[in-house]
């Protein structure tokens, strides 16, 4: 068994849609970045890559950024090629004044679909920063993800 962790923090970009966990929450007030800004899926990418000993997202992104969902699917394939399968995922989205809970079940289902695992093996929760830092000041959204990989036995 191997464990990986990922953490991504992004500020708001008012002209983009807000997408978290592969689910569009609203138009406008999306998150900055060359990619689509989905901090949850990007944190999951880093967690899977780290657990599989494959570095981080920067080691696998080309010149033209992929949508986070595509990147996560590719990361899963790379981990599987090294003999690992995803056992479970635990993630937290940190957002002040952003109601993520109504979308949690859809996010869990989408993450499970992208990783090829049972939705019961995916847990997404939310928290607030209590006014501290860029998240607490509602200037950014962050996500942290932990992934457990199982090594295939030959």
Structure description:
With 154 residues, the protein is an alpha+beta fold. It has one domain: 60s Ribosomal Protein L30, Chain: A (2-Layer Sandwich), CATH 3.30.1330. Helices cover 28% and strands 32% of the residues. It has four helices and seven strands; from the N terminus they run ββββααβαβαβ. The strands form two sheets. The chain has a five-stranded mixed sheet. α1 packs parallel to α2. The longest helix has 14 residues. The radius of gyration is 15 Å and the shape is globular.
Kindly list the characteristics that best describe this protein.
60s Ribosomal Protein L30, Chain: A, about 150 residues, two-stranded antiparallel ribbon, alpha+beta
In short:
The chain contains four helices and seven strands, in the order ββββααβαβαβ. The protein has 154 residues and is of the alpha+beta class. The strands form two sheets. It has a five-stranded mixed beta sheet with strand order 4-1-7-5-6. The protein has a two-stranded antiparallel ribbon with strand order 2-3.
List the helices and strands and how they pair.
Layout: E1 2-13, E2 18-20, E3 23-26, E4 30-31, H1 39-51, H2 68-81, E5 84-94, H3 104-115, E6 122-127, H4 133-136, E7 140-151
Parallel strand pairs: 5-6
Antiparallel strand pairs: 1-4, 1-7, 2-3, 5-7
Helix pairs in contact: 1-2
């Amino acid at each position: 068994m191997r464990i990986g962790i990922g953490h991504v923090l992004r500020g708001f970009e008012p002209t983009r849609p807000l997408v978290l966990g592969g689910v569009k929450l609203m138009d406008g007030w999306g998150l900055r970045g060359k990619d689509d800004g989905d901090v949850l899926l990007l944190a999951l990418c880093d967690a899977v890559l780290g657990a599989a000993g494959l570095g981080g997202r920067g080691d696998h992104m080309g010149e033209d950024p992929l949508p986070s969902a595509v990147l996560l699917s590719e990361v899963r394939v790379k981990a599987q090629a090294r003999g690992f399968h995803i056992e479970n995922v635990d993630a937290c989205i940190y957002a002040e004044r952003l109601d993520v809970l109504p979308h949690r079940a859809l996010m869990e289902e989408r993450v499970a679909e992208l990783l090829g695992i049972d939705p019961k093996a995916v847990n997404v929760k939310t928290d607030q920063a209590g006014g501290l830092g860029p998240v607490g000041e509602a200037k950014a959204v962050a996500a942290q993800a932990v992934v457990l990989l199982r090594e295939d036995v030959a």
